[in-house]
Design goal:
By secondary structure, this protein is an alpha/beta fold. Helices cover 59% and strands 7% of the residues. Strand 4 and strand 5 form a beta hairpin. Helix 7 packs across helix 9 and helix 9 crosses helix 10. The longest helix is centred in the C-terminal third of the chain and has 54 residues. It is globular and about 90 Å long. 35% of the residues are buried. The protein binds zinc ion. The site of zinc ion has 6 residues, from helix 6 and helix 7.
Length: 315
């Protein structure tokens, strides 16, 4: 069974609601590194590992950080699911394992043991959330208006999380013509795990498509414009020549063009598969009939032989 590729690391209503982020309940130990403050329970041993993962990734965000003053990012590592739930101060999907509060420069993640149990890499979660925080800091005047698919697409793209099974999810929905328009992913993602997985895959694909077709500098231009107060609609219009409605339509159109071989393969696969099966069954049937006939002939022959043997004996 296919595993979900991405989690809802970010809950929009948490991100954009003006909630006060008081200190999560519990006993916390703090580890300070060059750019991070890691809070964890004294019983846990993952503090240093998380600090190392975060610091290793941080230099790769140089371009996103460029031009903004970043304070230290807090990473709160929860010990239990209950502590995680209470630390995010809002309803959160059962399958979520991390959450970012970009404006507070705060990340809350599940116990690394739970992350591993759900077959995620801790580094993947940390990176994704770090991108959210830095992107949020860079676009803090406009982030509340940026469509969620773009925010998530940038997080997945810049954290380098692309995995083959996410591709499968997208292909499945291209073939069944059930791709969600980006406009439907503006404010929130579907609650169901499976559709949320699709939403993440689409978000990544749409952002990656900007880079593939227009070049990475165009993506940075869009991010710069958002940082300077433009909305995404104006930013794509200026950089790509398309407003969001046109972008959405062109991107969906490009999916069927870019992956048309998949549709062809899947339909011909079914067709040839069925045909091969029919031939095979036909072959088995013929072989069975021939075998039965040979057995019958053999029986008849042995009877004849017996007759002649008997007959010969009378000669
Ligand atoms: Zn996210």
């Amino acid at each position: 069974m296919k595993k979900i590729a991405y989690l809802c690391f970010l809950i929009l209503y948490i991100l954009f609601s003006p909630v006060s982020h008081s200190e999560p309940d519990g006993e916390w130990q703090v580890l300070e590194s060059a750019h991070f403050l890691i809070y964890y329970h004294p019983r846990m041993t993952a503090g240093q590992e998380i600090a190392d993962l975060a610091e290793d990734f941080y230099p790769r965000m140089e371009r996103l950080i460029d031009g903004i003053s970043m304070g230290k990012i807090e990473i709160w590592v929860c010990e239990t699911q209950e502590q995680f739930q209470s630390s995010v101060h809002a309803p959160i999907q059962d399958w979520a394992i991390g959450c970012a509060f970009p404006l507070s420069r705060r990340i809350v993640i599940q116990n690394p043991r739970i992350v591993t149990e759900r077959e995620f890499q801790l580094s993947q979660v940390i990176r994704h959330e770090i991108v959210h925080v830095i992107f949020g800091q860079r676009t803090q005047n406009t982030i509340g208006d940026i469509p969620l698919w773009f925010v998530e697409g940038v997080a997945v793209y810049l954290s380098g999380e692309w995995k083959p099974h996410d591709h499968d999810t997208l292909l499945e929905h291209i073939v069944s013509k059930s791709i969600l328009p980006l406009a439907e992913l503006t404010y929130r993602f579907p609650r169901s795990e499976k559709l949320a997985q699709l939403a993440y895959a689409e978000s990544l694909n749409a952002v990656a498509w900007i880079v593939e077709t227009a070049g990475s500098e165009k993506l940075w231009e869009i991010i710069d414009l958002l940082g300077n107060g433009s909305d995404l609609n104006a930013a794509t219009e200026k950089t790509l020549g398309w407003n969001l409605i046109t972008f959405d339509a062109k991107w969906r159109e490009s999916l069927s063009q870019r992956y048309h071989w998949v549709a062809l393969f899947s339909s011909s696969y079914l067709f040839w598969g069925a045909l091969t099966l029919a031939f095979f069954l036909g072959y088995l049937l013929i072989r069975l009939r021939r075998r039965r006939r040979l057995i019958k002939l053999g029986q008849e022959e042995s009877q004849v032989d017996a007759f002649f043997r008997e007959d010969e004996s009378y000669k």
